[in-house]
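Repro:
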Amino acid sequence: MDVKSQKFMFFDDWPYEYSRGFQRKQGKPVRFDGNPVLVPDKPHEYSRVSLYGTVSREKDHYRMWYPAFGMEGRTIANLCYAESKDGFKWEKPELDIVPGTNIILDETHQVRGQSIILDMDDRNPDRRYKFLVRPGHTPSIFSYISPDGIHWKILDKSAINADSDSHIGLIRHPETGIYMATMRKLKGDRRVWMSTSADFEKWTEPVLVKELDINQSMQTQIYGMQLTYYGAYILGLVSYYNTIEDDLDGWGKMDGTMDIGFAYSRSGYCWHEGFLNERFLGFSGPGNWDGQMIMPASHLILNEDEVRIYYAGCDHSHKPPYDPGKKLSIGLASIRPDGFVYLEAGDEEAEIFTRIFAISEPGFSMNADASKGEIRVQVCDGLGKPIKGFDFDDFIPVIEDGIYIQLRWKNNPDQSVLLNKQLRLRIKARNSNLYSVTMINGEEDPQYWKFREIDYRDILYLRNIIA
């Protein structure tokens, strides 16, 4: 995948020389007013529809794969399918697997915790869709393939050596082509392990990639982590389990609540959270449909003007037995593109200064809300000296709210003087939120989720140190 655009985001300080006066904040997804959007209303769904499953957008429609559970007595799980034109109103089509139902894998498969991907880079059309799952109490992870997402067959009953009794994460990295899966290594070991594969058939032995930080509560455990490729990063929705201190009945600690944290990584192996004890999306409180436990779908939905987070929720604690009257249902929340972490400037002027970067073609854009203030940008050379025509006094202030705000300077100076040179940006803001800054680099159809981070190799190239 040839990605031209580069972007400054604000997860951490790695791309910057200094930041003064800004406050780094975590974005807050907004719940859809019409939640829940999918509820258990079929006999084979019992009282629980879960997003230990997947929602995807394919061209002009949405698809959902969700397990439906019966937990009165023994656990029964059917993998079901729904579809929607807008992602809000869902239909459950009658399919040919179990006649008269939307079941695609019945209880004999014991599917509960799969992540499904559409893999357009696989040349074999019979392997267009893929998922990984640990069925029932089987101490290994199975792989499945399908030509259409409806009709599935088992590829390997021992694909990954892991007894993962939770939701498995799965992506195929669009740049490397590597499949990356997150899981538990052992049942009840609530940490995140990763296995990778070049062909979806031979998988590496899982390695530990995420556990609790020393600054997090002792009564916090990681249930799982779901992955989404996002430009230079891999984003993780972390399922956090908040246990109770006086629950001393064994290792498992079965009583508590669940909510969602936000993590990011540049590799998939080294993970960071900027807000360790602040949840990205919390449960809404007793008395609401998602009042005590929420669990994310396997991937974020990257729409043109929003990022959607689909999740399952219920109004009871983790401890069984569960009241069938308090159903597990599915809803969604949304956040602006690049809105996961941002810089907030108040009444006093704030300033940030970037590390060195280079551009090959002109054009800068900004994702910001300056509707109650203003943002100004200066382009400097590698030593921090303003470039003529691109100083603060030349800049036309950003005073609007937008995802793709074009940065402009008075008299439209020739940006060719900026090409293939060491550059830095100095940005000043008041009463504004700054989400990202993009160097377009000739990208014909910029998409906010496709970008590179600034890279020292660009500078080495300019010095002819590498070819």
